Amino acid sequence: MFGYIVRRLIAGVLVLIAVSMMVFAIFFYGPNDPALAYCPESRCTPQRLDNLRHNLGLDRPAPQQYVEYMSGLVKSRHIESGGISIDCNWPCLGVSFKYRVSVFHYLWDRFPATFSVAAGGAICFLIIGLFSGIFAARRRGTMADKAIVSTSLFINAIPYYLLALLAYLYLVQGLGLFPETGYHSPFKDGPFKFVGGLALPWLMLGIAYSTQYARFSRGAMVDALNEDYVRTARAKGLMERVVVRRHALRAAIVPVVTIFGLDFAYLLAGTLFTEKIFGIQGMGLAGLDAVQRTDLPMISAYTLISAAFIVVANIVVDILYSVIDPRVRLA
Amino acid sequence: MGRLRSDKVAIVCAAIVVIFILIAVFAPLLTRLFGVEVRAGDPSTDTDIFNFPVIGPPDHGFTWKAPLGLAPDTGDDNLAEWLYGARTSLMIASISTVFATLIGITIGLVAGFSRGWLDRVISFVIDVFLSLPFLLAALAVAPIIVLRFSDRPGLLKWATFFSLIFILIITGWMQLARLIRGEVLSLREREFIQAARVMGVPTRQILFKELLPNMVAPIVVSFSLTLPAIVTAEAGLSYLGIGVIGQPSWGQTVLKAVPYFDTYPLYLYAPVLGIFVLVVALNLLGDAIRDAFDPKTRR
C-alpha cells in the first residue's frame, strides 16, 4: 500500500513536469516573439522590445529559462521589467505583465470562489443523482423508473452550457426568481448572500451532472439487489431500509466514487462555463480574461494549477478506491 | 441494424442528423437560394442609431430579404451565419472524430498487441493526456495562435480552425485507445489468433484482418458518442471566445446574442436551437446505437 502510494506520487510528479514542459514550450516557442505580447502596440520601439527581451530573460537559452521559471516553485523570485522591479513571493509562477502581480497569488485569491462553485455543485449532483438512481432501482420497471431513466437520458444529451445559460437569462435576468449570481465571501458578506449568489449555479451543475450518477447508481444498485447476500439479508428478516442502506448501497457506491473524484477535479479545473455564464469571479474567469488580454504568464499558471488538481485527484481516487472496495488490490 | 430500425427515437434522430448534414453540405447553395450572404453587413446602412437592424425582426415585420433578420451592430445576415455555422460545426466535428478514432484504434492495437515496455510507455502517455482536459489545452493554445497570426487575418481563420481540430483530436483519442487495448488483450489469447500466429500470418495482417473486425461494435459506439461531444465542445469553445475566429460559428453567435436576449430573442434562439437540436439528436442516436450493439444495456 505504502509503496503503491509512493509510486503513484512519483508518477504524478512526472506527469506534472511533462505538463509544465509542454506549457513552457507552448508559451515560449509558440508566438513569434513572446516579448511582443508585453509591448504596448502604440509605443513599441525596437529598443523597448530589446529591453523587454533582456528583462524577461528571453535572450537566454531555453533550458536555462525553464529552470528559472520552475525555480519559483521552491523560492521567491525578483523580476525586473521596464525600470520597475516586482517581488514574486513563493510560490512564484511568474508575474502578470498586465496587472503587475504574482500570477499564483492572483489566482489563489480567486480559488475560494471556484472551490465554492465546485463543492456546492458536487453536493447537489451527488444528492440528486444518488437519490434518483437508488429510487429508480428499487422501483425497477415501474413508471417512476422509466420516467427517471428517460429524463436523465434526455438531460444528459443537452449541452450543459446551454442549460445554464438559458436558466441564467430567464430565471435571473428575465423573471428575477433568483438573485443576481456571483461570489460573495461567506465571512465578509454573510452566509445568505453567499448562498443566494451561488444557488442557481449549484442547482444547474446539480441537474446537469446528476444524470450519469443516476444512471451509474441505478445500474449498480440493480445488480446489487440481485445478489445472493441481499436475498440472505431479506430472508433473515431485516428491514428493507437496512437491506438497501447497509448491504446493497455499500456495493453500489464503489463505481460512483471513481467518477466522482474525476468529476470533482475537472470541476475544480474547469468551472469555465459556470463562471463565465453566471459572472462568478473565480479562477476560470481569470484564465479566460487572461486569454482576452494575452497575459501569457497568467494562462500558463492557470493551466499548471488546474492540471495539478486533476493529477492529485486521480491519485486520491485510486487510493480511496482500494479503501472502499477490498477486492481491489494495490500492487 | 434491425434493432436500430425498430427504435422510433433512433429513426427520428437519424432523420434530424441527416437534415443537418444536408444543410452543412449544401450551405453555399442554400444561402444563394435565400439570396443572403455571409458577413455582408454594413453597419452604416443596415442598422439604425440604436444599432438595431433597419429591416426584419425585431422592430419590423418578416422579410424575405433576411428570413432570420440581421444581426445588431454589424448588420450581418443571421440565416447565412446560421447555415455556415452548421457547416463549421459539422466539419470540425467529423474531421476530429474520424482522426481521433483512427489514432485511438492504432494506438490501442499497438499497446494491446505488443505488451511489455511499449505497452507501459503507451499507457503512461494515455494517462498524461487523460489528465489534460481539452478546455485547458484550448485555453493555452488559442492566444498563441492569435498572437502568431494576428497580422494575417486570412491565415488566422484557418490557423484557428486547424488548431481547434488538432486540440480536439489529441484530447479525444485516449478513451477508445484504452478500450481497444483491453479488447486486444483479451482477444489475443483466443484460439483463432493463436492459430493465425502458428500459421505464420504476418503481425500486420493479424492486427487488421483478424483482430480489427472483432472490434467493430466498440468502435462504432465510440464514434457515435464522440461526435456529439465534439459538436458540443466546438460550440462551447467559441462561446468562451477560444474557438474558431473569422468564420461563422453557432457558439460565437450565442456569445454575441446574449445581451439581446430580451430585446431581440430570435437572434439568440436560432443558434441555441441549432446546437440544441443537433447535439440532442446525435446523443440520443449514439445511445440508441450503443443499446443496439450491447444487449446488456436496456432502457
Second-tier CATH architecture of chain B:
Orthogonal Bundle
The run of helices and strands of chain A is HHHHEEHHHHHHHHHH
Largest interface: A-B, 50 and 39 residues
Quaternary state of this entry equals heterodimer
Helix residue percentage of chain A:
over 70%
CATH class of chain B: Mainly Alpha
The general outline of chain A is globular
| Rg from alpha-carbon coordinates of chain B | 23 Å
The CATH architecture assignment of the largest domain in chain A turns out to be: Orthogonal Bundle
Tally the structural domains of chain B.
Answer: 1
E-strand count of chain B: 0
Secondary-structure content class of chain A: mainly alpha
User: What's the N-to-C terminus distance of chain B?
Assistant: 17 Å
Total of DSSP H or I helical runs spanning 4+ residues of chain B: 14
Helix content of chain B: over 70%
Mean pLDDT of chain A: 82
Transmembrane segments (chain A): 9-30, 113-135, 147-171, 191-211, 248-269, 299-324
Protein name (chain A): ABC transporter permease
Domain ABC transmembrane type-1 (chain A): 111-317
Organism (chain A): Nocardioides agariphilus
Short description:
Chain A has 331 residues and is mainly alpha-helical. Chain A is 72% helix and 3% strand.
Structure description:
- The complex is a heterodimer of chains A (331) and B (299).
- Chain A is built from 14 helices and two strands.
- Chain A has a two-stranded antiparallel ribbon.
- The longest helix of chain A has 35 residues, at 191-225.
- Chain A folds into two domains: 32-92, no CATH class; 107-324, MetI-like fold (Orthogonal Bundle).
- The model of chain A has no long low-confidence stretch (mean pLDDT 82).
- In chain A, a hairpin with a 2-residue loop joins strand 1 (77-81) and strand 2 (84-88).
- In chain A, helix 1 (2-29) packs antiparallel against helix 14 and helix 6 (111-138) runs antiparallel to helix 11.
- Chain A is mainly alpha-helical and 331 residues long.
- Helix content of chain A is 72%, strand content 3%.
- With 299 residues, chain B is mainly α.
- Chain B has one domain (2-40, 77-297): Orthogonal Bundle (MetI-like fold).
- Chain B has helices spanning 2-5, 8-25, 27-34, 43-46, 78-114, 116-130, 134-149, 153-170, 174-187, 191-198, 203-211, 216-240, 250-257, 265-293.
- The two termini of chain B are 17 Å apart.
- The A-B interface holds A 11, 15, 18-19, 23, 26-27, 30-32, 36-37, 146, 149-150, 153-154, 156-159, 161-162, 165-166, 169, 173-174, 266, 269-270, 272-273, 276, 287-288, 290-292, 294, 296, 299-300, 302-303, 306-307, 310-311, 314 and B 124, 127-128, 131-133, 135-136, 139-148, 228, 232, 235-236, 239-242, 254, 258, 261-262, 272, 275-276, 279-280, 283-284, 287, 299.
